[in-house]
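Issue: ligand-bound run for aspartic acid - logging full I/O for the record.

Environment: standard queue, default settings, no custom constraints.

Inputs:
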Amino acid sequence: MKVFKFGGASLKDEKAIRNVASIIKKNAKENLWVVVSAMGGTTDLLERIIALSQAGKNFDTELHQLKQYHTTIAHQLLADTRAIDQILETFFDDLKNNALLTGDYDFVYDQVIGFGELLSSTIVHQYLNQEGVAAEWMDARNLIHTDSTFREGQIQWNETEKKIKAIRPHLKNTILTQGFIGYNEKKETVSLGREGSDFSAAIFGYCLHADSVTIWKDVPGVMSADPKRIPDAVVFDELPYKETAEMTYFGASVIHPKTVKPLANRGIPLVVKSFIDPSLPGTRIHECHIPNLPPLIVHKENQCLISCKVTDYTFINENHLGIIFRAIHQSGMHVNVMQNSAISFSFCVDYREHKVFQLIEALSKNFEVFYNTGLLLITVKNYDTKTFNKYRSEKGVILEQSSRAALQVLVKG
Ligand code: ASP
Ligand code: MG
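Outputs:
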């Protein structure tokens, strides 16, 4: 069995979905398990609906826009639209009701955010069946069990594996299911974090003992840098699990950071391939050794540098660090780079406005806090002298950190 994962960009319109269906059709003899994300831009729009609704504002325009988008594409693809029209009607009623739920923000968020995947998987499923690919739709939430950490569900591996193992012998057709979502024990939807569909594919791959997991992207494979920034970036034929996991840790957006581990644990190859040109070989991530890897450059945008300064002429000590790290942990944010001096400690996080300001407020009880936003974090792994010097002398560097393995610079603007 092979697992395929298609992201939002590969499902963004009628033409894109026809292309995805043709890739599935060509491989359908293999016993496929297909995981899809929401169609292009849907999750962002759902986030806007949630924010509006939770602020007590009207979200009819956004809801209408989302419904139009899905209905138009479904009608372009399907000859008989009676079934899909009814399903869409129900989904959008439920979506609206869930957006109006009250209670914890993250809980409400998760009761809404998964509709993107439910909608896309339903449309693709119907289209596949129309095109003669026998495909079965499955609700991923009945298989993926999580705890109740809304917006970042932690996988309950034992229950998840038991569920998937139980259905495995009965699988005949191509399975079509959603990424990004699971259920907690109360059967409430819990999402796995933004861009989490890759991780879902890895969970299924692991539990199914799949032969491979393929992530279909709009790039030819895993590259040494973002080709939009560095035109001479190269595509790797193969990469070791470890190297790939580290790249994602530093912010390479080609695969979600949690994807590699479960697959590495079972030695299941992870393949990154182009849905634009499926004839290209892509990158195979597996247990291998590659001598002389070129420098890998990862750009991470929208960073915020927070500096905590002690106010009473003492020095930053372990107690201060304890306070700072507890506050960061409680905020649910992750540190991307950090540095200390005698009287201050600085760290860089993704700029998620709401969370950042909560964190700054918490830290302000003990420190004088400064922050900068709109920063770019550049990480160079396996640097050579030339790249090392180039990135250190980049214009606007406000923080620099290097080890034997990697150089990181935080740049303004
Ligand atoms: N649709 C979700 C998101 O945009 C999950 C994913 O695409 O992987 O974050
Ligand atoms: Mg996506």
